[in-house]
Please model this.
Amino acid sequence: MRVNVYGSELSAAVAAAALSSVGHQVDWYPHPEVPWQRLEHAEWLLREPGLKSQIDAGCRSGLLRLTDTPTREDVEIHWLALAPDQREAAEAYVADIPAAQSHPLVIVNNSTFPVGHTERLEALLGHADQSAVALPDMLEEGRAWETFTRPARWLLGSEDSQATAQVRELLRAFNRRQDVFQLMPRRAAELAKLAIIGMLATRISYMNELAGLADSLDVDVEHVRLGMGADSRIGFEYLYPGCGFGGPSFSRDLMRLADVQHASGRESLLLEHVLDINEQKKETLFRKFWHHFHGQLFERRVAIWGAAFKPGTTRIDQAPVLTLIDALLAQGVNVSVHDPEALPALRDLYEQHSRVRFCDDDFYAACEGADALMLVTEWKCYWNPNWRRLSELMATPLILDGRNIFDPDYVAARGLIYRGIGRRADPTNA
Model:
């Protein structure tokens, strides 16, 4: 098929590369605010596993063409993968390009716009055999290529049988193991995507609330988590307490759901509470640090392992580390940070701050003379540290585990002080 992809989001890059990789002729038009000349050097694009090489392969094959202007040739599919604040750009594009074509076509709305916006895009088309479908972006950053080419599901919002058939054919190469399409009305698909994000965020925040309760009751939250997860009605997914979630898509989609509810006149006390809990949890490691030293923090040193909002990405958008660093700096604490991928993004924000030091190569170097080590992002390189070395390097061997990846009793047995999220060493095992 002839496909136009419009946008500079991760979803646009993946769609352009993946569709061209299976034989579609794809013209990719990045949004003018982020043209390819800038996009090709973006850290998130270069760090996304395999994506840049797939884009390069598509360009070499001739099946993927990058363009600075919209292609006005007749095409069969216009794939819109734009940021939520680019709705007007989407409408202008649809009114100008697809509406000017004379043959059947399908608009695939892969953007996270307000519920009902796919219908609005279709209204801009001028022919009865032109339609718009909703295909919400379900990519997972850090494994975007895999989630597109081996999808667990596609939420396909369509009320037009011909458009449905066209989209199925477009994505047939990625739908061979089993039928992963969940067909539903367009508004239902748009809302379902936001509802999924809301449910995941609610589970995380609920576990974080339970972790706080467990702390106050001197209960290890790990026992509670295992008991809950063993119930088949609940399961273990997204049932891990931590120091808060972040990320450009997750946080943005959660706010989009809040906006949808506000616009409908149905305020959600639950969702507001979920958001409040998450912001509070971003400060939980700071509060544990404050409590341990009874508020005497000026000129103390803290090592932070992990800055990215999750392992496998360079992004720090709404990441807990930002709230944590700001709270530490406000108290005159000196901070040394290591992250395998996200330090360039963190440098852009804190490079001029004299109290922040960046440790590029050796994550142990961040711990020299530290009064506490805060584990913020659970990169695999941090899971099994040399505890003896840490104990020798640190001024105070205080381990604040923001992701509960360490064994509290094991760490304590090596002479360090362990505090997790609802977890601590059992004194009877000392």
In short: The longest strand covers residues 2-6. The domain at 2-184 is CATH 3.40.50.720 (Rossmann fold).
